[in-house]
Write a structure and sequence with these properties.
Strand order of the largest sheet: 3-7-8-14-11-10-9-23
Structural class: alpha+beta
Number of helices: 14
Strand content: 25-35%
Mean pLDDT: 94
Low-confidence stretches: 1-6
Number of domains: 3
Radius of gyration: 25 Å
Helix content: 25-40%
CATH architecture of the largest domain: 2-Layer Sandwich
Length: about 475
RNA sequence: CGGAAAGUAGCACAAUUUGGUAGUGCACUACGUUCGGGACGUAGAGGUUGCAGGUUCAAAUCCUGUCUUUCCGACCA
């Protein structure tokens, strides 16, 4: 391997944080702005987000949701209606205090999330069980005044999607909460090729104002956890606080049951950190803005003809592609294609064309094959499927190899100190143990998985030794 | 928000120690030759040294403040 190829990207194993920063910049996903924590998502990065949007939005619509657009300002009094909610978010909201030169009567925050706005609206439009369920979603930006910021992983201005729904029964709302979580889970696995754990958050980690929070937990290449999506069950907490009522089938006034769920451009960060390598980004075919990059080597009629034939075939198969026609040398173009993570590269040059062939290279393994020009698209279609599957399998294997199952606290301590990854243990369910593990080991609870959550082995809490209630994942997090 | 480091052309850096009016490589533009793993020639363009004050005859250089970035902690999607 030639060292020149990676001269601008720090090695992943040498300095993972720096590697991440290098990749998001060099792959043209993002640029910094002059405001801390407000990043510029460049066309290539935004195209990934657009694909995410398109795929998820279809799923949301399929399950009956409608898109709306709410205001971005929340009057202070509105934010304060639900006590736990304001307590959770007040420390990190941005305030607008002036309109032009005049001080506002009441300051307003820029939405850190829109529960309060939706509730304020729902109160006015819900009066009967016939108005339910109300299934809304919005794509928007929110602001949370984070202290430390990193592109995609933690910014102050966050591009996301937030679903807000109202239901006439607890069962229906809970079903909705889990249904949306499942959509996120499937999306991560099938589209992003990211293996995830889904489960319930602890009381300590749940959303401010929620009765229960469920999350999608992914492991990055370095073993650190990233929460990739959440779905909350609110019960009647907000609807009571906001006095939202509907007349049920028995002609009785009742507060509706509520959910909210969301995911952000952080998922782009996850893509980078799960699949990327020392050469740059590696995108799973199903989310890549361009599935194929074509690199003509030299130019003559034969090359042009082959190029034309291949691009026509790609179009017929609806495979997105890009042609690198710049006057760079082939080596330069190969490296650039690798930094940008196009799943497949097609090289068209005279050497291969003597045998009527083109060279196809997969980004994930860098394997090269020569195939006849007329069969290029058949091969591409086959490879796209293989790449998608292989990327998931590789990520799954790596993740599973970084999960530890200690029986004693000392063992856990040792793992936390020397290894990175997830730690799966019995837990008593008490916040005191959760706090102790956080303080002493630097690990936070990730989630209580839906499956296999019953305590195993001695059935005692890893931390206090008392009777365990459940199994739980612990990890360092981004 | 604490601790450390950095900001000079799009990028990487030099000139800062010892104040004297900004340079190199890559990238960029035009033309030509090239093209299978980061090409070459010729010509050219690009800077009030992050910003704001201060010291000085003179500031990229010294001082103060501020903003931004990176890394490490604490806090959080």
């Amino acid at each position: 391997m030639n060292d020149k190829q990676v001269k601008e990207i720090t090695s992943r194993n040498k300095d993972f944080a720096q590697w991440y920063t290098d990749v998001v910049k060099k792959a043209d996903l993002v640029d910094y702005s002059s405001v801390k924590g407000s990043m510029i998502i460049r066309p290539y990065g935004y195209a990934i987000w657009e694909n995410m949007q398109n795929i998820l939005d279809k799923e949301f619509k399929k399950t009956g949701h409608e898109n709306v657009q709410m205001p971005m300002f929340i009057p202070e009094s509105l934010l304060q209606v639900e006590k736990d909610h304001v307590k959770g978010f007040a420390p990190e909201v941005a305030w607008v205090t002036h309109g032009g030169n005049n001080k506002l009567e009441e300051r307003m925050c820029i939405r850190p999330t829109s529960e309060t706005l939706f509730c304020d609206h729902f109160k006015r439009i819900i009066s009967s069980y016939r108005d339910l369920p109300l299934l809304y979603n919005q794509w928007c930006t929110i602001v949370r005044w984070e202290k430390t910021t990193r592109p995609f992983l933690r910014s102050r201005e966050i591009l996301w999607q937030e679903g807000h729904t109202m239901h006439e029964s607890k069962e229906e709302a809970m079903k909705e909460t889990l249904k949306m979580l499942k959509i996120y889970e499937d999306f991560q696995k099938n589209i992003l090729a990211i293996p995830v754990f889904t489960g319930k958050k602890t009381e300590k980690e749940k959303f401010a104002g929620a009765e229960a929070t469920y999350a999608i937990e992914a492991m990055m290449y370095d073993g650190v956890a990233l929460q990739n999506a959440t779905s909350h069950y609110f019960g009647q907490g907000f609807s009571k606080a906001f006095d939202i009522k509907f007349l049920n089938k028995d002609n009785k006034l009742e507060n509706p049951y509520q959910t909210s769920w969301g995911c952000t451009t952080r998922m782009i960060g996850a893509l980078v950190m799960v699949h990327g390598d020392d050469r740059g980004l590696v995108l799973p075919p199903r989310i890549a803005p361009f599935k194929v990059i074509i690199i003509p080597i030299g130019s003559d009629k034969k090359i042009d003809d082959a190029l034309k034939e291949i691009t026509e075939d790609l179009k017929d198969s609806s495979i997105t592609y890009k042609i690198d026609n710049s006057n760079k040398t082939p080596g330069f173009k190969f490296s650039l294609a690798e930094v940008k993570g196009y799943p497949i590269r097609i090289e068209i040059g005279k050497k291969d064309l003597e045998n009527d062939c083109a060279t196809i290279v997969r980004r994930d393994t860098l394997e090269k094959v020569k195939v006849p020009v007329s069969e290029v698209v058949i091969k591409v279609n086959e490879l796209l499927i293989n790449i998608q599957n292989d990327m998931y399998e590789r990520a799954l294997k790596r993740r599973n190899s970084m999960i530890y199952y200690p029986d004693t606290y000392d063992e856990m301590k040792n793992i936390a100190k020397n290894k990175s990854g997830f730690i799966y243990t019995n837990w008593c369910g008490n916040e005191s143990c959760e706090n102790k593990i956080k303080d002493e080991l630097g690990l936070k609870s990730r989630c209580i998985p839906f499956e296999e959550a019953a305590p195993t082995g001695n059935k005692k809490c890893i931390c206090c030794g008392k009777k365990a209630e459940t199994k739980i994942y612990w990890a360092k997090q981004y």
